[in-house]
Structures are given as C-alpha cells and as structure tokens.
Design brief:
- By secondary structure, the chain is mainly α.
- Among the domains are: 66 residues, Serine Threonine Protein Phosphatase 5, Tetratricopeptide repeat, CATH 1.25.40; 83 residues, Methane Monooxygenase Hydroxylase, Chain G, domain 1 (Up-down Bundle).
- The protein is 71% helix and 0% strand.
- Helix 3 runs antiparallel to helix 4.
C-alpha cells in the first residue's frame, strides 16, 4: 500500500489567508490598509527567500466587506461537508463578480478559479488561472494550480515547469510540489533528489508555516526512507503535529496509518484509515488500505465494501486492477465463488500480464470449486487450477511461488488418484449392471 503521492496537490480555496490579506496586520502597521500577495499574507518568512515587496494596493472598504462576506459563505458551505455543485458554481460566480467590480483584488479572481476547479469545471478553471497569469505572470497560486491540472493530465514536464515558476514566485504550494516531484524521483532510484525534496519543503514552510501539504510531504519523505524506529517515530510525530493544525485533512490520516503499519500497529493504522475516509470518502488510497487490512482480518464484507467504493470512484488502471482482485478475494471469503471468478476475469482482462490473478484463480478452483465426489469433474477442475498455478510459477512474481509449487505438487499427486477412483467407480457400475 502506498500513499497517494499527489493527493496534497489538490486545490484549496485560499480563504483565511486572503481574508487576512484584506485586513490590518499586526506585524505591518505601516501598510495596514494594503492587500499583500497571498504568499506574503502570513508570517514565517526568512531573509533568504523574502520576495520583492509587492506594489501597494488601495482596497476599498466595500471590497473588503464583500470579500469577507463571500469567505464566510464558503466556510459555512464547506463546514463538515462537501461543497455541492450549485453552491460551488454560485460562489465562483460571486467571486468573479467581485473581481470585475474591484480588479485590484486578484485574490477574488483566484478564488473563482479555485472554486470552479472544486466544482469539476476544469476548463473554466484553467481559463481563469491563465487569465490571471496573463495579467500577473508571477502570481504563484495560479501558476501552482495550472501545474496541478497539467499533472492530472499526465503532462509531467509542463507540471514541473509551472511548479518551478510558482516556487520562483515564492509560492509555498509551488515549493511543496517541486519537493513532492523530487521525492517521487528519489523513490524511482534517483536518491540525489532527496536533498532537493527536503530543501523545497523547508522553503515551503518558511514562506507559509501553516502549509499542511508541506508538513505532509516532509513526513512522507522521512517515512519513505526510514530505516530506524527513530526515523519512523519522527515521521509519525510530524504527521500528528500537522493533524493538530488541520484536524480535517484526510490525507494526513492516511499517511499516519501507513506509518503505523510500518510500526506494526495494524489496528491503530486501520483506525486512521477509517478517519481519513470519514473526512473524505473519495480518498481511494485510504479505502484500498482499509480493504487490505480487513481482508487480513477476514472481515470480508468490510473489505468488499472498501474495494467497491474504490471502483465506483473511477480509479486509475493499476488501482482498478488491485481493487478488482481484492473484491474477488472478498467475495471468495463470503463463499460467492462464481462472483469471485467473474471479478478475477475482469481483472485479467484489464491486465492480462498480471500473473498474480492466475494465482488467485488457481486457489479458487483448487480449494473452493473442487468436487471430489465426481472424479471426472474434479479432474477437469484440478487441471484448470494446475494451468493457473503453473502460469504463476513461470511468471515474474516470487512472493507466493513456494506455495504455488506446493499446490502444483498436490494436484499432480491427486489427479492419478482421481483417475484410479474413476476406474473403480466405472468397474462397480459395470458389475452392478451385470447383476
């Protein structure tokens, strides 16, 4: 089970920070009426990365009041629930209208795009972000979110370019995302990028000490390469600290669950995965982790529900294959053998080269569909299981190869015995017929 590597890249509407930007700041009494850029609206900057001062903007009191009103509407609409489509579109339109009336409030334009992104209106959101950078080429939040969109389309080069531009604009999310991409390179074997990943996370936190995604990335990097109990515990403490700052951030609970799994705290890990989906039921990685653990606990019904949730969420191909196989195992555990075989066949159609599917099919036939009372049928079933298991043994998987070989040996010993039984039964029938 892996953490979902880019879950923290999802766009979050900048409300609290933007609201703070439109109100007097205790740390800057000289410019109390000026709106600062989003990435400068909060503390924690260091001298080495402080960007040039943004031009002063005089924002009318009406604009501030309207912005605050819309912010409160957003917070009320998202409190403890997912934003519904009509409210999302309405708020996006309102932020757009606010920007049209007050063009200096670029944050309102950004929030329009971020809300459209949240609504699933990706083309419209991208148009808003591109309009922003056409007017302000160094506006970090829009550059970062264009990178998120490019990444979602599989355009990794373009995404990296946008993230680097956002980082050069001293955008905290841009730094964190450059760090996450470097972390992924390290996982693929380029260990030299590990220092780059760590340094960019530190830059992200220096710009915005409240950047939960940066804390998550830092804990993830430590978790990835933890070779001692102390390192694992450090990753856990960072995740816990981040959760204290943002108790509803679902990916953090998923990450904490993974860390606890590595610490052999399986029951506690399951609790964290369930917390993750309680805050975000669309978090597929957490559902996959719930499914895997409950399978190991033989809670087949709960496992089946978890895998079905993943499949309903339109996962990527690799996750879809894993969830389909998992669902097949859960159905097998519920003694729904035909349904289980059907799921394995679906998985095989999705990924024919995956030999582990053949292993599961072999087990299903050998252990659950085998009928010793009918030798002829039993021989056919065992020969079918034998083909599945031999395919697995000759494939690239090694995890269960010893078990597969043991099963093959048992089948080869069983088939001659069944043939002998078949001859004996035929002879008995012949004798009974002669009488």
């Amino acid at each position: 089970m892996k953490a979902n590597a880019f879950q923290q890249l999802n766009v979050i509407v900048a409300t609290a920070a933007l609201l703070a930007a439109c109100t007097p700041q205790k740390t800057d009494t000289k410019n109390a009426k000026d709106v600062k850029s989003q990435e400068n609206a909060i503390g924690g900057l260091t001298d080495s990365i402080v960007p040039p001062a943004a031009p002063k903007r005089k924002i009318s009191e009406n604009a501030k009041v309207d912005f605050k009103k819309l912010t409160k509407q957003y917070e009320a609409a998202t409190k403890g629930k997912t934003l519904d489509l009509s409210t999302c579109e309405s708020l996006a339109s309102s932020f757009g209208d606010l920007y049209a009336d007050h063009p200096k409030v670029i944050e309102a334009k950004f929030n329009q795009g971020a809300l459209l992104f949240e609504c699933g209106k990706l083309k419209e959101a991208e148009a808003v972000f591109r309009d922003i950078i056409a007017k302000q080429p160094n506006y970090g939040p829009a550059l970062n979110d264009l990178g998120v969109m490019a990444l979602a389309r599989g355009q990794h080069g373009a995404a990296h370019d946008f993230f680097r531009k956002a980082a050069r604009a001293k955008n905290s999310a841009g730094y964190a995302n450059v760090g996450m991409l470097a972390r992924n390179s390290a996982l693929r074997g380029d260990i030299n990028t590990l220092i780059k990943a760590r340094n960019n996370v530190f830059r992200a936190l220096a710009v915005d000490s409240r950047n939960i995604n940066a804390y998550e990335t830092l804990a993830t990097i430590i978790y990835d390469h933890a070779k001692t109990k102390a390192k694992l515990e450090l990753a856990r403490l960072i995740a816990v600290q981040a959760i204290e700052r943002e108790p509803t951030h679902a990916p953090l609970y998923n990450l904490l669950g993974l860390i606890l799994l590595k610490q052999n705290e399986v029951t506690r890990a399951l609790k964290q995965f369930r917390k993750a989906v309680s805050f975000d039921n669309t978090l597929r990685d957490a559902h996959m982790n719930i499914g895997a653990i409950t399978l190991s606990f033989r809670d087949y019904r709960a496992a089946g529900q978890a895998f079905e949730t993943v499949l309903k969420a339109s996962p990527n191909k690799a996750m879809k294959v894993d969830a389909t196989i998992g669902l097949g195992v859960a159905l097998r555990g519920q003694r729904k053998f035909k349904e289980a075989m059907a799921k394995y066949q679906v998985a095989q159609g999705l990924q024919p080269q995956n030999d582990s599917i053949a292993y599961n099919m072999g087990i299903l036939v050998q252990d659950y569909l085998f009928d010793a009372s009918n030798p002829a049928t039993a021989i056919e079933q065992l020969q079918k299981a034998l083909r599945f298991l031999e395919r697995y043994v000759h494939g690239s998987h090694r995890l269960r190869r010893r078990d597969a070989k043991r099963r093959i040996k048992n089948i080869k010993e069983m088939i001659p015995m069944l043939r002998e039984q078949q001859k004996m039964m035929a002879e008995m029938q012949k004798q009974q017929g002669g009488k």
